[in-house]
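Hey, can you fold this one?
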Amino acid sequence: MKKCNIGIVGAGTVGIGLLEMIRDQKEAILEKTGLDITVLEIATRTPSKVPKWVEAKVSNDINSIIKNPSIDIVVELIGGSTTALEIVQSALKNGKTFVTANKALISEHGSSLFDLALSHSLEIGYEAAVAGSIPIIRTLRNSLVTNQFSSISGILNGTTNFILTKMEVDQLTYKDALKLAQDLGFAESDPTFDVEGIDVAHKISILANLAFACKTSIEHITIQGITSIQDKDISNALEMGYRIKLIGSAFLKNGKILMSVQPTLVPFNHPLANVMFEKNAVYYTTSHSGAGMLIGSGAGAHPTASSVLADIIYYGKRRGSTPKELLELNQFPAAEYGKFNEEKSRYYLRFTTLDKPGVLAEIAKILGKYNISISSMQQEESLENEPTSVVILTHLAKVGDYTKSIQEIDSLKEIIKEPTISFPLMENM
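Sure. Predicted structure:
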């Protein structure tokens, strides 16, 4: 038997879920792994919200956890990359193994933190930082390490996938679906980090680091969230044989990395199309294993807490061993980036315009000017000179040309209400 004492910083949804899992599985974990896990201290801004059955010391004093010589592992569950950065730095300097679910922290500061951990012969566990309950981090590090990746992509945010699913299944508006997600605890009161794609950007950056053995930066990711999606876009996509999903993608092309986060039309026959509600999925293509996908719950207390607990067990058993995994991460070179605007894709375009002669011809002329040809076009029935919605599917064209054409289309006085909506199609991702 090996004892493992932990201190938890943050007792929100995931923190309470972790405490419940440790309470309920303590004996089973001991029997299966030989690790005796005990929560010694919890630091939280709201100690009164910690359940009465918790036997650990509860306070708002983070330093007490950091300085406690009996604590082996510090678990950080507060999010963000300011206070959390100070916590991990202090924890490592005080000889603590560090476990986190904080994707922003690892994406923005991972390289320097791995250096610091290595200098103290310690390890950092961050399985829970990407894709909830899916064991993707160690899968990339270990199980697929012999493969060369050509792409890795996926549905990496349970909140946005839940919203898009409810908009489809229950015909909810974006606003109503978001409110439901907040009521169920899948979305924060301020959902910006999720719905604007920032959360996914941090996660795909981390996955790209491991898949392509390089150090990437979120600054090189094209990011578009889901806030502009309307129920008509959901129904239009379904009629065409697609579902709209927020996809984070990273590709290796001619030795250079291309990364994006954007709503994407995924065909029904693609595995990602059937990942619904708060589920997450990671889809990859490799040299030897071909294509594969891992799927699991990505939002809620217990899915994330299960990955945190898996890290506690894994690194708790490894305490005192040489952190070879961090050594490998620190040897990664900086990524080289391709020019996303030069890539080609098909696009879904929707714009609202006045139903008057010559408007569609002018739009087609602008698209033609940028070498974009139309595959299909649909227009809602409307009265003459009244607003109408027009949907266009295009043939392959350069992404940069779409950007220029949409800017010119939006400058037309006949385009009203909102800017042109544009999503790529999955076939070429």
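DSSP finds 14 helices and 18 strands in the chain. Let me know if you want another pass with a different chain boundary.
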